[in-house]
Design brief:
Helices cover 41% and strands 21% of the residues. It has ten helices and seven strands. The protein has helices at 4-7, 10-21, 25-40, 57-64, 76-88, 127-137, 153-156, 169-178, 194-198, 202-215; strands at residues 47-51, 68-73, 94-99, 112-117, 138-147, 181-189, 227-234. The longest helix has 16 residues, at 25-40. Pfam families: Methyltransf_25. Residues 48-139 form the Methyltransferase domain.
Length: 235
């Protein structure tokens, strides 16, 4: 996985949420969580695995909605932040955090209803192998996102400390076919890059987001969107 050493550093974990999901990044956080909730509903009592759960943004949210969730991540420092969030939350479901490798998931076949992998595929060295492993442990659904090749994401991609893999729609379609997954729905969003939203206060980011969403209503804009949210089913 790209940037593995950088990602596991203690100081990165401590600052991760503040740097990415404060200021205008709050809009990104809100949209990503909505995409996951919309794909999985109804959530209560669903057995869910989140790959690369990081600081637990989605795992804590899903447990709060009544799911039984396992969050897996390679970074002990990130998991520590997630456990801290879980302690502060009054969870309706159950939540366990586990350190592990997404390429070798420590679970039997068909163990989960849903597997979620957000903010992961742009770092994957072998996305097909990772997707195959997720499909192995899911009996129903896999939800993930990708950053798109023909988008503003490519403008600042070179500046990221770990690099980033960008995808075309056709590449993802090939991945789904190879891993025997059926596409239920895909949502495209954010014509403007994430980095712009994170760099400005929410008061400035909100009108930009409204403009972004307005332009996004036109079908041609789907090809220029920075991110796609994929909802797939196991055949």
């Amino acid at each position: 996985m790209k940037g593995q050493e950088w990602y596991q550093a203690d100081d990165i974990a401590e600052e991760y949420d503040d740097k990415r999901f404060s200021r205008g990044g709050q809009l990104i956080d809100r949209r990503e969580k909505a995409a996951v909730l919309d794909a999985i509903m109804p959530i209560e009592d669903r057995k869910i695995l989140e790959i690369a759960c990081g600081t637990g943004r989605f795992t804590v949210m899903l447990a709060d909605q009544g799911a039984d969730v396992v969050g897996l991540d390679i970074s002990a420092a990130m998991l520590q932040q997630g456990r801290r969030k879980a302690r502060d939350a009054d969870l309706a479901g159950t939540l366990d955090f586990l350190r592990g490798d997404a390429g070798r998931l420590p679970f039997p076949d068909d163990h989960f209803d849903t597997v979620v992998a957000m903010r992961f595929f742009h770092l994957a060295d072998d996305p097909e192998a990772f997707l195959q492993e997720m499909r192995r442990v899911s009996r129903d659904q896999i939800v993930f996102d990708t950053f798109n090749r023909f988008s503003t994401r490519s403008v600042y991609n070179w500046a990221l400390p770990m690099g980033s893999r960008l995808y075309s729609k056709s590449e993802v379609a090939v991945l789904l076919a190879k891993t025997d997954l059926t596409l239920v729905d895909v949502e495209d969003d954010f014509l403007l890059p994430y980095g712009l939203y994170r760099s400005i206060p929410n008061a400035l980011a909100s009108p930009l987001r409204a403009l972004d969403e307005g332009i996004g209503e036109f079908s041609l804009s789907d090809h220029l969107a920075s991110v796609s949210y994929w909802n797939t089913r196991v055949r």
